[in-house]
Amino acid sequence: MRQWSGTGIAYGADYNPEQWPEEVRAxxxxxxxxxxxxxxSVGIFSWGLLEPEPGRFEFDWLERVLDDLHxxxxxxxxxxxxxxxxxxxxQRWPEVLPVDHEGRRATFGSRQSWCxxxxxxxxxxxxxxxxxxxxxxxxxxxxxxxxxxxxxxHNARCYxxxxxxxxxxxLQRRHGDVAALNDAWAxxxxxxxxxxxxxxxxxxxxxxxxxxxxxxxxxRFSSEELLGQHLAEQAVLRRVTPDVATTTNFMVSAGQTSxxxxxxxxxxxxxxxxxxxxxxxxxxxxxxAFAADMTRGIAGGPWLLMEHSTSAVNWQPVNxxxxxxxxxxxxxxxxxxxxDGVMFFQWRAxxxxxxxxxxxxxxxxxxxxxxxxEVVELGAVLRRLADVRGSDVEADVAVLVDYENTWxxxxxxxxxxxxxxxxxxxxxxxxxxxxxxxxxxxxxxxxPDDLAAVLAGYRVVVVPTLxxxxxxxxxxxxxxxxxxxxxxxxxxxxxxxxxxxxRLGGYPGAxxxxxxxxxxxFHPLLAGVGTALDDGSTGEVWSELARADEDVEVLAAYxxxxxxxxxxxxxxxxxxxxxxxxVGTTLDDEALDGLLQAVCAAGGVVPxxxxxxxxxxxxxxxxxxxxxxxxxxxxGDEVATVDVDGVDAVSGAEVAGTLRLxxxxxxxxxxxxxx
Length: 675
Fold this sequence. Notes:
Layout: E1 10-15, H1 24-35, E2 39-42, H2 47-50, H3 60-71, E3 75-79, H4 87-92, H5 119-136, E4 142-146, H6 161-175, H7 178-185, H8 212-240, E5 246-247, E6 249-250, H9 261-265, E7 272-274, H10 284-299, E8 303-307, H11 326-336, E9 339-344, H12 370-384, E10 392-393, E11 397-401, H13 403-408, H14 423-434, E12 439-443, H15 451-455, E13 460-463, H16 471-482, E14 486-490, H17 512-515, E15 517-522, E16 530-532, E17 538-540, E18 544-548, E19 552-557, E20 567-574, E21 578-583, E22 586-587, H18 589-603, E23 615-621, E24 628-634, E25 640-648, E26 654-661, E27 666-671
Parallel strand pairs: 1-2, 1-9, 2-3, 3-4, 4-5, 6-7, 7-8, 8-9, 11-12, 11-13, 13-14, 14-21
Antiparallel strand pairs: 10-23, 15-18, 16-17, 17-22, 19-20, 20-21, 23-24, 24-27, 25-26, 25-27
Helix pairs in contact: 5-8, 10-14, 14-18
């Protein structure tokens, strides 16, 4: 795999000098040097300036920018600039504009205003990529190619006629013939039988519920079309500049599930991610940790944080500014969980345009600000962490997730709209993190052939609401238990196959034999309605009528309602030393925390370090040298303590036995060598 060049933890931002008079660039470069910036992304939204009319390229201004950055020792992540087409493209070829599920065609005036299946867009975008690669492929500032930007953020699914034709071609490749399509989609229901692929439409607005298999295949197709654009641009870059690594910035974060990044990751030289705190969430930093661990799981190791914010964003109902110290703590939270670079959107806060109220490394008020002083401080800390680059995050727990499951559970006809694929995954991850236990969040799609081998490396494997599950995934989970892992499977897992067809004979289908539990009927719960368990805990959202095999230990049963007496929590010993645990309801935090502690104890999983308070504790270790760094981030309102010995790279202080962290404080302790 190609690696992006450079040393240490990369530090910088999206840099958009085209928004400013040219004389501002000298100040920008001077401030970048003061802040310790080492890498900037350039040209992301500049197609209209680079190619003001078809085939006429104006690159001189961009070359002057790259020359000035290189002279200052700053590397460039050079964008292909294809994210935002210029006005002339849709003026000449209006069919490139995407169409939504209600049949409305978008107009020019924003970004990503293109259909992923458009041959016109593909042709024009690749012409730009070719010209950029030829002009700048040998520039000494170039460290990395940045393909497009946040692919699919606003145009993940297009329902135009061009997309429909491409969808039919994709279906023919996937299913082979119409008979196979009819079988996969169960078209005998509601007289949806097809006699030719030409009859198939995109699942746009219709009179009633969509066919779930039809909708799932369209989601798969849409993700692959966007990946196809990435691969097409990448192919040009690899042909012209074979030694320069490429990346495209993912959006592994709350609410962004339209692209199967597990599958996309297999095509990346460098996995990079954009992440922004969502303040509508109960605990935004719990979601940050989940997203970072999931990005690492997708990447299979270190990754690059391509964007986050120094302070407020511009797109939430209330755009909350970061308090003093939060920017440093958030940045180190990503580094703790595998990021080898800390980048922001953007370098200088814009004075105009749609993102003028998005924070930057240089705020509207300029250099003499508390925010810029924090930017300089962060740069100094990251320089002291240079040796962390390339080290691995230690984790004994895996949480298994799947993008296809999020799509399969989008439909309106499931047993309960209160269940989302990632809901329990987030709860499990949050509770483990609060106990200072690190988990890798693994996407099924990233491991099409080696999932069993990957899971074999973990002491605990959690499978939360894996509604859609193919035979290979189920076998890999069972193999992990047989190899000695403690496997935890929750309700609504394994109940349909990859065609969204129910696995008959009793739920949880694919995991029934492993768990020794057979569910006869689901009893989902209304909002505000709980179900009592006979161990004194309470379940919410879900309950079910079930029975357990004789070799299954029932840890708790339902104590009331139509399912009274049915097993709610079970454990079955598995030959080989492992065990399979089943959770048939949504437990409250206290009950699930207790269960996870029991599971971790059975698997020999211990906290990264003894700690008090609401503190993240994560360890990165360099396998080659044995060096390790303990990251400790206090998100609480009280002083926290962590047991550790070494030297703190943030404060420079020696730590002998106990680290004390003030509220909001953070430390990265280069640990004393093991005896």
